[in-house]
């Protein structure tokens, strides 16, 4: 009954052409996280949950469901199957194109409804603090003469940091051995324990060990420095980490963090969530989250977001083809 | 000494009436989520997490970690009563806990399980209190080769050379390994054995398989023998608690061994599940009442419970000191810490002293509160066995189905539960052992990953498994345990002959 | 020796037959695993390929199942796996359970639970009608309250329950 009413209301809104957010959620909203609890996507979802509930942005409760199986593939299948359900959201990272390309999974983000891009995440080249490397150049020189090859490690096979490791090999003409662990956390500990030579973790994944003096950042895989100038470890801030291209390592890579809905939802439903996320990114909780994780604020929605996705996907396809990560 | 002062300060923080109230609420909620298969510590924590955003971080973590204690305690209840492990780490508790219940000793088994949990948790907290920094450094020495060593040791301590039909043990172990391998392979990033089916992509979840193999199949077996629960005429009163306690000191060796195993597995993130199996395996190997294991031996309840809880508690240490979660619940707690603006890691102990020591003090108090609450519920739970089978059985089956569904939110998993229920029924009747299957399922892919990570790092060189003292010790210990049976037989025979010899000379 | 010599209550499915069927099924499973693993590569290229371990375990299963098969075929004892009477009892639980799981796919968990409770209590137990009715209605309601309202865990629902606003 209520649903029929809203469908009619939505239809009326379409006919009259007004863009007023006529739709509102009628039951709890599920945010599906394609990663395990505690990971960076999970933290983002829980921050969003906190921001919504503290500021009373939505009347319905927010539920977070972790579906980490198959590198997020299962979560994407779920969204694929839920076409038309306006009470589901999925957090997204580059995995939204990488997992289907690497596993031949029959899903495509074009079948989903893009809501908003919230931020971009940087990657940093980290080494164990006891090792003599001070700059990216030191590391590359050492890698050139190392036998067996130096070990890097990270999130998992054919994932973002594996791609970065291979990209570095190609750009610098070196050979590295990438060891896939089950996430950035273990990779950080393995680096602190000296079991690997370097990792390419996100700032948030490595900050604890950086502050404790067990790992050291060499450079950030971006064209410009990060913007956060608060002191983190000793007298270093995120902004003090030099960009890799400045150190002769011409590798840049960032990962999007965004939100999608299932396909076949109405324009009003999509608009409701776009507005919601516009409000969320203005909350103090969200700003604190960005700073804590040294994320690059980059809000996009609508055609702007879609254009970004298309370009980013093409770039990933290119990088993954060169790295031999595409399933055949 | 400084630490002790800090701890006393911590007790002052934790002992405000408000925090004690949070503790009790947390433990009760934890028991509820621990009892229901499919709901677990992570659910309980996740549901309260949003409520804690406005709270003082110390009160918040006391509330949330109490859920964790409650869930640890609660997992044993359904294992003992219905052979359905409420949590993955209480699978090994079913091996002897359920037979005890069948014999009408449900209250005794529950008391043993709860008390063992408490002892294990206490061991874990003592570890955290006194040697946290040292242990955190030790955990850093674990690379892939060492992890493989730990998993290998777990297998060897559990499987060994049993007396059952060897072909069936091997078959069961193989099935477990193969089930574990289905889905995405971490090392290569490819899908394995999914045969193009998207449902198989996520692999076989441990809990779904176990609910089917143990829980559903048990109901099918029960009904074969008539429409009632076995052992429903159990003596139920609180005196059982005292009687059981009086017997515990005799098992000090098992309790101590399991505590050590558990602490070890919790710190090196082998996890509570592996710890419970290893604790059970070792107890069986070294007990004088070895023959009685699996038939309702109280030692078989004490050993896995102590180990699981020592591990579950110690697992909070790497979370606090290194920022890596030792379990799924710890992972959600970790997320909470970050949202409250606390950065777990080596500096947390320095920068947020009152928080860390408040938490540690709450671990002591939370466990005491937990033990008292669960012991008080023993008669309540044990009396469930008196309700008519035809009323309880469908409820159990519905709860099993919900449990299987909620693990991954997949309807396909309910079908899997049914299939494994049937498989478990057939396997139990023709004596394919289920325990090796479950062990291989839970540790198989992690052991394989660790092995392949180590080999990747060494460039294909197998000597990496003997490259330093730590990993060599693990591997040698494992092989020794694997052949423990034959070795002791041999020694026994040699000694026996010597004893015989003089008589022959006479 | 012959089964007919046994008293009629003891008649049932032969254990030997079940052992043989299980062993054959496991060998089939092993074959499937081997086919899949060798298809993806089960060698050692500077380290094990992703089919290396499953293939070895597959062979192990094949061999173990073959042993089980041989010992089952050679077994002298004629044991009964399950008597027909027992099988009938098991079916009284298994068939409703099967219908329940099937029902979850179409009716959601709440309506299926209601029907399953009622069916089970009526066929297996001997309750008064009002007990059956009360239990069948209460159980889904309690489950709904615990999971959907208290723990916010969404369970499978039929379109009917979904329209109630959850």
UniProtKB/TrEMBL annotation, chain B:
<keyword id="KW-0812">Transmembrane</keyword>
<feature type="transmembrane region" description="Helical">
    <location>
        <begin position="142"/>
        <end position="161"/>
    </location>
</feature>
<feature type="transmembrane region" description="Helical">
    <location>
        <begin position="355"/>
        <end position="375"/>
    </location>
</feature>
<keyword id="KW-1133">Transmembrane helix</keyword>
<feature type="transmembrane region" description="Helical">
    <location>
        <begin position="60"/>
        <end position="82"/>
    </location>
</feature>
<keyword id="KW-0472">Membrane</keyword>
<feature type="transmembrane region" description="Helical">
    <location>
        <begin position="387"/>
        <end position="406"/>
    </location>
</feature>
<feature type="transmembrane region" description="Helical">
    <location>
        <begin position="20"/>
        <end position="39"/>
    </location>
</feature>
<feature type="transmembrane region" description="Helical">
    <location>
        <begin position="204"/>
        <end position="223"/>
    </location>
</feature>
<feature type="transmembrane region" description="Helical">
    <location>
        <begin position="167"/>
        <end position="184"/>
    </location>
</feature>
<feature type="domain" description="DUF112">
    <location>
        <begin position="21"/>
        <end position="439"/>
    </location>
</feature>
<dbReference type="InterPro" id="IPR002823">
    <property type="entry name" value="DUF112_TM"/>
</dbReference>
<feature type="transmembrane region" description="Helical">
    <location>
        <begin position="109"/>
        <end position="135"/>
    </location>
</feature>
<feature type="transmembrane region" description="Helical">
    <location>
        <begin position="319"/>
        <end position="343"/>
    </location>
</feature>
<feature type="transmembrane region" description="Helical">
    <location>
        <begin position="261"/>
        <end position="283"/>
    </location>
</feature>
<dbReference type="Pfam" id="PF01970">
    <property type="entry name" value="TctA"/>
</dbReference>
<protein>
    <submittedName>
        <fullName>Tripartite tricarboxylate transporter permease</fullName>
    </submittedName>
</protein>
<feature type="transmembrane region" description="Helical">
    <location>
        <begin position="462"/>
        <end position="484"/>
    </location>
</feature>
From TrEMBL, chain C:
<keyword id="KW-0472">Membrane</keyword>
<keyword id="KW-0812">Transmembrane</keyword>
<feature type="transmembrane region" description="Helical">
    <location>
        <begin position="55"/>
        <end position="73"/>
    </location>
</feature>
<feature type="domain" description="DUF1468">
    <location>
        <begin position="21"/>
        <end position="156"/>
    </location>
</feature>
<keyword id="KW-1133">Transmembrane helix</keyword>
<feature type="transmembrane region" description="Helical">
    <location>
        <begin position="127"/>
        <end position="147"/>
    </location>
</feature>
<feature type="transmembrane region" description="Helical">
    <location>
        <begin position="17"/>
        <end position="35"/>
    </location>
</feature>
<protein>
    <submittedName>
        <fullName>Tripartite tricarboxylate transporter TctB family protein</fullName>
    </submittedName>
</protein>
<feature type="transmembrane region" description="Helical">
    <location>
        <begin position="94"/>
        <end position="121"/>
    </location>
</feature>
<dbReference type="Pfam" id="PF07331">
    <property type="entry name" value="TctB"/>
</dbReference>
<dbReference type="InterPro" id="IPR009936">
    <property type="entry name" value="DUF1468"/>
</dbReference>
């Amino acid at each position: 009954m209520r649903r029929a009413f809203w469908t009619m209301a939505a239809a009326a809104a379409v006919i009259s052409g007004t863009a007023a957010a006529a739709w509102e959620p009628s039951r709890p909203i599920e945010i599906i996280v394609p990663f395990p609890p505690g990971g960076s996507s999970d933290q983002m979802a829980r921050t969003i949950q906190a921001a919504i509930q503290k500021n009373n942005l939505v009347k319905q409760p927010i539920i977070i469901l972790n579906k980490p199986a198959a590198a997020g593939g299962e979560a994407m299948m779920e969204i694929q199957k839920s076409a038309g359900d306006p009470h589901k959201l999925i957090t997204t990272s580059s995995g939204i194109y990488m997992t289907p390309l690497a596993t031949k999974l029959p899903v495509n983000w074009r079948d989903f409804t893009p809501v908003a891009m919230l931020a971009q995440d940087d990657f940093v080249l980290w080494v164990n603090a006891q090792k003599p490397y001070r700059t990216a150049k030191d590391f590359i020189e050492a890698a050139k003469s190392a036998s067996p090859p130096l070990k890097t490690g990270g999130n998992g096979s054919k994932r973002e940091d594996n791609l970065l490791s291979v990209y570095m090999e190609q750009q610098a003409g070196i050979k590295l051995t990438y060891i896939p662990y089950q996430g950035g956390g273990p990779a950080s500990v393995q680096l602190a324990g000296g079991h690997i030579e370097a990792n390419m973790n996100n700032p948030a994944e490595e900050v604890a060990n950086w502050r404790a003096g067990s790992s050291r950042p060499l450079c950030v895989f971006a064209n410009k420095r990060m913007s956060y100038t608060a002191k983190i470890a000793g007298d270093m801030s995120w902004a003090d980490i030099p960009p890799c291209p400045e150190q002769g390592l011409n590798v840049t890579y960032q990962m999007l963090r965004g939100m999608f809905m299932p396909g076949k939802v109405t324009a009003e439903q999509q608009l409701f969530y776009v507005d919601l996320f516009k409000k969320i990114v203005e909350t103090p909780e969200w700003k604190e989250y960005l700073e804590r994780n040294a994320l690059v604020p980059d809000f996009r929605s609508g055609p702007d977001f879609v254009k970004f996705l298309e370009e980013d996907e093409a770039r990933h396809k290119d990088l993954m083809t060169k790295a031999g990560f595409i399933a055949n | 000494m400084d630490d002790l002062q800090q701890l006393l300060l911590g007790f002052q923080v934790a002992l405000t009436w408000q925090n004690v109230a949070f503790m009790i609420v947390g433990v009760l909620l934890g028991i509820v989520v621990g009892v229901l298969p499919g709901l677990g510590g992570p659910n309980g924590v996740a549901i309260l997490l949003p409520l804690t955003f406005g709270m003082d971080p110390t009160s918040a973590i006391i509330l949330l970690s109490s859920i964790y204690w409650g869930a640890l305690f609660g997992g044993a209840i359904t294992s003992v009563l219905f052979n359905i492990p409420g949590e993955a780490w209480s699978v090994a508790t079913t091996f002897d806990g359920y037979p005890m219940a069948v014999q009408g000793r449900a209250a005794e088994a529950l008391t043993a399980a709860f008390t063992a949990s408490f002892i294990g948790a206490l061991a874990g907290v003592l570890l955290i209190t006194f040697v946290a920094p040292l242990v955190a450094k030790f955990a850093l020495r674990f690379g892939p080769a060492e992890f493989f060593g730990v998993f290998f040791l777990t297998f060897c301590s559990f499987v060994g050379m049993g007396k059952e039909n060897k072909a069936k043990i091997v078959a069961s172990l193989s099935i477990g390994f193969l089930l574990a391998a289905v889905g995405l392979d971490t090392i290569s990033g490819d899908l394995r054995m999914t045969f193009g089916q998207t449902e198989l992509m996520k692999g076989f979840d441990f809990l779904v398989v176990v609910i089917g193999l143990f829980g559903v199949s048990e109901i099918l077996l029960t009904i074969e023998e008539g429409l009632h629960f076995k052992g429903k005429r159990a003596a139920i009163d609180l005196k059982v608690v005292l009687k059981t306690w009086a017997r515990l000191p005799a098992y000090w060796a098992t309790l101590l061994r399991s505590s050590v195993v558990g602490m070890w597995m919790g710190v090196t993130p082998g996890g509570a599940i592996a710890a419970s199996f290893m604790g059970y395996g070792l107890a069986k190997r070294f007990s004088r009442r070895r023959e009685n294991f699996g038939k309702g031996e109280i030692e078989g309840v004490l050993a896995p419970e102590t180990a699981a809880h020592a591990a579950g508690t110690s697992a909070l240490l790497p979370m606090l000191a290194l920022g890596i979660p030792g379990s799924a619940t710890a992972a959600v707690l970790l997320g909470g810490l970050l949202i409250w603006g606390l950065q777990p890691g080596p500096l947390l102990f320095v920068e947020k002293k009152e928080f860390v020591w408040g938490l540690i003090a709450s671990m002591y108090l939370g466990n005491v509160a937990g033990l008292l609450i669960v012991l008080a519920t023993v008669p309540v739970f044990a009396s469930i066995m008196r309700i008519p089978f035809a009323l309880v059985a469908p409820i159990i089956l519905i709860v099993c189905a919900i449990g299987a569904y909620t693990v991954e939110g997949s309807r396909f998993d309910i079908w899997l539960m049914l299939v494994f229920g049937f498989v478990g029924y057939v396997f139990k009747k023709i004596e394919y052992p289920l325990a090796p299957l479950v062990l291989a399922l839970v540790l198989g892919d992690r052991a394989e990953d660790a092995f392949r990570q180590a080999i990747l790092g060494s460039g294909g060189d197998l000597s990496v498994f003997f490259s330093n003292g730590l990993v060599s010790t693990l591997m040698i210990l494992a092989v020794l345990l694997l052949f423990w049976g034959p070795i002791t037989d041999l020694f026994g025979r040699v000694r026996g002959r010597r004893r015989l010899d003089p008589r022959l000379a006479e | 020796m012959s089964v007919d010599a046994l008293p009629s209550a003891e008649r049932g499915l032969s254990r030997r037959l079940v052992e043989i069927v299980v062993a054959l099924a496991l060998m089939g499973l092993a074959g499937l695993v081997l086919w899949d693993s060798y298809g993806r590569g089960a060698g050692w290229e500077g380290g094990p390929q992703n089919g290396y371990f499953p293939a070895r375990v597959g062979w192990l299963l094949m061999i173990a199942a073959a042993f089980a098969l041989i010992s089952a075929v050679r077994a002298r004892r004629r044991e009964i796996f399950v008597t027909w009477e027992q099988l009938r009892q098991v079916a009284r639980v298994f068939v409703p359970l099967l219908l329940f799981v099937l029902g979850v796919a179409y009716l959601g968990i709440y309506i299926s639970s209601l029907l399953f409770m009622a069916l089970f209590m009526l066929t297996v137990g001997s309750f008064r009608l009002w007990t059956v009715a009360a239990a069948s209605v209460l159980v889904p309601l309690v489950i709904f309250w615990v999971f959907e309202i208290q723990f916010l865990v969404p369970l499978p629902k039929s379109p009917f329950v979904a329209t109630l606003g959850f």
